[in-house]
Design goal:
393 residues, alpha+beta
Length: 393
């Protein structure tokens, strides 16, 4: 019996328990990041951004941006262009808490705060991102603000994502409703947009809105929607001409939305590779341990196996019995893994976040590795031990 090797059996069980838990944690991390990097950004594939940073203190930034946008919009192949001080699908965004606002003499705010990302744009902001207006309308040119927002008697306008509309107004129609920042202006919702990812590393990254703000603050991102078969080449040439137009500012390299995603998800891809390697390493370790223990077991039981085979026991029966004996250890390891998981889950819930389904998946994978490692050892040993017994006689 396998329990004659008590110490080795105990070590194998503990190793399997540890391997199952580490594998479950690795599967959870890989699955989480695979889901994250597989998400659609919600932004059109034809979206490009160009960073503009003036370095001459006497440069009129508002006039410069207005001139640049006029040039960009007239450039062949550019469908829409806008500018903003923030960039979606990056960490170069700004967020704050916002409240549902009830228009009254008291100007009451809902106590439930919602964190959201905001982008100051002009009338082409949504079009540059390739977002569809699900309900409502775009900004009118007269609603664009060149400096400060006007007082609450004339509310600032906002186009909000579907996610933010749901969070602020709980599924009710958002059009014509109001929300406000902690100390900022009150916004009137004039449109509900498709969702897009404003900040990819944030759990509330799809809570976002566009507001009419054309004030240039030190730097600017130009947003372009380019429809061309040679879009990359077109945008590169556009950037070169922007550099020539004014030598008192720096113009960054154009970045497509796919390049932007690759950059912001670089760490996620590294984590996927790292923990996938951990899963492979644990698989090899489990296979080697199972193989070595099976070899030791059949070596000790060789005479008994040969005798049963000589007395007419079928090879299939002997293989099944051998795997069953060894499989009992794996069953104990899986059971102990589940018990350890339940104890840790209820005792340290904040530290044990992976699902029991990942634990069961890891256990099933270890079971498969165990079977394919042990089966050839047991199967091969039957004829080998029988032949050795004949030679001894």
């Amino acid at each position: 019996m396998i329990f004659r090797h008590r110490l080795l059996s105990l070590l194998l069980v503990l190793q399997m328990v540890l391997a199952i838990h580490l594998m479950a944690i690795s599967i959870d991390i890989v699955a989480e990041h695979v889901v994250k990097v597989s998400r659609s950004s919600g932004i059109a594939d034809s979206f490009y951004s160009i960073h503009m940073q003036p370095y001459h203190k006497h440069l009129d930034l508002n006039e410069l941006v207005e001139s640049d946008l006029g040039f960009i919009r007239s450039y062949p192949g550019v469908d829409f262009a806008s500018s903003s001080y923030a960039l979606p699908m990056s960490d170069r965004v700004f967020s704050s808490f916002f409240y549902r606002f009830v228009v009254s003499e008291q100007g009451e705010k809902d106590i439930n705060a919602v964190r959201a990302y905001f982008f100051g744009v002009d009338t082409d902001g949504a079009n540059a991102l390739g977002l569809k207006i699900r309900a409502g309308r775009n900004f009118y040119p007269s609603e664009l603000y060149g400096s400060e927002y006007q007082p609450n008697t004339q509310f600032a306008k906002a186009m909000i994502t579907q996610t933010l509309a749901l969070e602020l107004f709980s599924g009710e129609s958002a059009l014509g409703r109001y929300f406000s920042g902690v100390d900022g202006p009150v916004f009137e919702v004039i449109a509900v947009l498709d969702d897009f990812i404003a900040e990819p590393q944030s759990p509330y990254g799809k809570s976002a809105f566009l507001a009419p703000d054309t004030v240039v603050r030190k730097f600017r991102y130009y947003w372009l929607n380019v429809k061309s078969e040679n879009a990359d080449m077109l945008v590169d040439k556009l950037r070169e001409q922007l550099v020539r137009r004014n030598d008192k500012r720096s113009v960054g390299e154009p970045v497509s939305i796919s390049q932007q995603q690759s950059r912001v998800y670089e760490r996620d891809f590294e984590l996927i590779k790292l923990f996938s390697s951990v899963i492979v390493l644990l698989t090899v370790l489990c296979a080697f341990s199972s193989y070595a223990f099976a070899e030791m077991h059949v070596h000790k039981q060789g005479a008994s196996i040969a005798l049963r085979y000589a007395m007419g026991a079928s090879k299939k029966r002997l293989v099944r019995d051998g795997i069953s004996e060894l499989g009992l250890l794996l069953f104990l390891a899986c059971l102990l893994s589940l018990l350890v998981y339940l104890v840790l889950r209820f005792s340290f819930e904040e530290f044990i976040s992976f699902s029991v389904l990942y634990l069961l998946s890891a256990a099933c994978w270890v079971l498969a590795v165990f079977y394919f490692s042990v089966f050839p050892v047991v199967s091969r040993s039957i004829k080998r031990d029988f032949a050795q017994s004949l030679r001894w006689e």
